[in-house]
Amino acid sequence: MNFVIPDFYPAAAEIFVMIMACVVLLADLFAGRGTRWIAYFLTQATLVGAAVITFATMDGQVVLTFSNMYVDDVFGDFLKLALYLAVLMTLVYGRPYMQARKLETGEFYLLALFATLGMMVMISANHFLTIYLGLELLSLSLYAMVAMNRDSAQSTEAAMKYFVLGALASGLLLYGMSMIYGATGSLEISAVAQALLQNTANRSVLVFGMVFLVAGIAFKLGVVPFHMWIPDVYHGAPTAVTLFIGAAPKLAAFAMTMRLLVGGLFAEASQWQDMLMILSVLSIALGNLAAIAQSNIKRMLAYSAISHMGFMLLGLAAGVVAGDRHFALNAYSSAMFYAVTYVLMSLASFGMVLLMSRAGFEAENLEDYKGLNKRSPWFAAMMMIVMFSMAGVPFFIGFFAKFSVLQAVVAAGTIVSWYIWVAVFAVFFSLVGAFYYLRVVKLMYFDEPTDHSPVSPPMDVRVLMSANGLAIAGLGIMPQYLMSLCAFALLRSL
Amino acid sequence: MTDYPLLSIAIWLPIVGGLLVLATGSDRNAPTARAIALAASILGFLVTLPLYAGFDTSTSQMQFVELAPWIRRFNVNYYLGVDGISLWFVLLNSFITVIVVIAGWEVIQEKVAQYMAAFLIMSGLMNGIFSSLDALLFYVFFEASLIPLYLVIGVWGGPNRVYAAIKFFLYTLVGSLLLLIALLYLFMESGGSFSILDWHNAKIPIGAQTLLFLAFLVAFAVKVPMWPVHTWLPDAHVEAPTGGSVVLAAITLKLGAYGFVRFSLPIAPDAAQALSGLMIGLSLIAVVYIGFVALVQSDMKKLIAYSSISHMGFVTLGFFVFNPLGMEGALIQMISHGFVSGAMFLCVGVMYDRMHSRQIADYGGVVNTMPKFAAFFMLFAMANSGLPATSGFVGEFMVILGAIKYNFWVGFAATTTLILGAAYTLWMYKRVVFGAVANSHVAELQDINAREFLFLAILALCVLGMGLWPYPFTEVMHASVNDLLRHVAAGKL
Asked: Which candidate in A414, A427, A470, A472 is best for mutational testing of the B interface (most B CBs within 10 A)?
């Protein structure tokens, strides 16, 4: 038997993170109590190192390795860089929170690294099994992280719910993959695409499999009707973990969607686009309506996440119009731009929840934000920027995200006119959404504080939150570079 | 023409000034904040003066044009310029900002820096709206300007401020989101350009024109505000602090009307002509019906708010009779309304600061204790009811003439405003100012101080000056208005 040594070079960053995760595990084991900072700094150093490696090995080519199971391209590299940044920021925001609750264990950082590795594998997968592998690595790490606060019934319940539903979704995804394997005879994404182009696949089996695939993806993205876990898990998990779930995995889920649907099943785009369109419209409506009724900010942001993911899918659903693939690049890059900017906003919003929380006090209720402008004008301004950005008000980046997706939808609408009405619908629900974001601003600025304790986060959180808020404003004034970067990454990879 | 990017300076100077004011932080530094705000607003006004001085009145072309790529991916440009229609609004806006800063000088004692900064930033954004020639840039300024006003109403407003602020924001957001869809559609149809001037020449079929016109109508009608989407305005006015009311009446209301001239008429001229009956109908309802509504108000600010809606009905009427008299009259009316309604709200603010009441019934005989103030208030009340020799007369008269040219009965209906306007304004004036001193609070009133005298006197000069010598205002408009009307008459089909 011929054994070929694969080319490890394209996966250098993954291997590095893998090794470092083991190092963190061992270092934490041997370091005594009170030296948790070793694990923390090693983890952050790993992320920085991985970023350097990814950046250094980026050459603009599409390189396949491990018998075509793995791909290294600009699209993946770009998302990975965003991913490292998101995880790094998550850990900075989350650390004081976990410390104050005596939850800062080596496992937290270890699991974060393994989850990161899982996401990296998902982003770079060129094979159904690789995707599944990455997804499970991510999910299992997340289940454990949600349950980290083991004395809390709420956390445990959330973890259980997440685990059961997540396992079900993984099953659906796997089932869909097996069907597609049956139809096309391959598990490799590019081979599946090839088989579809040659029209050799069994159509009914294929579409059947696709439905399951989309259901699995929808669960991971958390869009209606597969959204049930989102509010409960976001609410139940320790806030630092909520932040982790709410930010970086959205990038990985987006990458998975792109690899599976666009990379593999592009020939069937008109089929899955209809499914995505329904998911998207339902998510935008339900997410925004349900968010209004929330009094807990974590739940509110959870429903807002649902609506944002719906909006992002709108971009993916506008790629191929009446058989015309002309718009695809524009539409997909708008969705990618949306995903990246959403992660940036999500980091800032949950980061603010963490920043407001103290030992023994969870700033979970909307009421806790009353009169923040009196207590800390600077952070109130940052939160206001985030809220207006999420509501899609310019000059903030959230507006340009909505703008670019709507632009893609309206572009499709010039050929098939009902797309225009979808855009009108989406816009209408953005308006509904604006209400609950405005309510947070109202609480911070118009109401008197009930809690007068000073807001005094550690210096690193202070700096990062300011940078995060200003980035949302600054990128809003100069959105062109990030937009072009997304378009470029897709252009060089698909 | 000068080489300086005057429009950019007019936009960004107040915004940077506003951020500087914000940086002074807490109320301990309030005097510094006030000083910086005053300096920034005066500088902001001064830099707009060369715009007028250097303006070439012989052409309808855009002037002081600045063009730089902004978002290349969507061919969005940082594209600024003014013509005879927009020029005066940039000046008016920068001028009103100075007045607002002076008017809030001692009145605002809480979060001074944030208050001043909000108005300065708003001023910059408004200048951006009036001078944008790129539709997305326009839209961005248009929406961004909601934020400061939302905060101003919500933070420094009256007891029901939260309701008013959110209503204001959501109402105007409804309109502007539909506008976004319309802009995106035009972007696609025009082959990938966001330039408003390109759109003016784009051929669009009548069906699409009608939809576009309606989308624009929703967006701008809310802002004007036209009947029946006007209900946010009285709430916002009543709850807003004086400065907020002034900016709302003097500038924000002009955005909607300006949108009609910049977008609806030139981009969808055929639809505009086809739907002019609807527009004139809505305008007349605003003029007549809202006039009656104003008559029965017991709250002074509410009364002036309704009178604003009625006056803005005049503006939209002037646009849709499609003749130069009507259109120029409408533009003059917009500027004049900026001075007069601003002054009216300031007058109410002066009384409110002393009495903490806006109810007409709480006043009576103010002239006995505040004679100087009563004289100013008289002038502005007269201007509000359209007395000749005040600025209020010029615009109304031109619009009425234009309307009579278009159709006698339309003109006739519009003329009722002269009676209604006089009725509600002067009746209010009579009840508040004349008569015997009504109660002990009125008896204790102090007449206006030097600061109040200053801003009322400046506005009085503007009102009188514009009424007696409107030529500088109409002069710059001729070329642009005639060009626009030719364009609308020619149609696009």
From this structure: A427
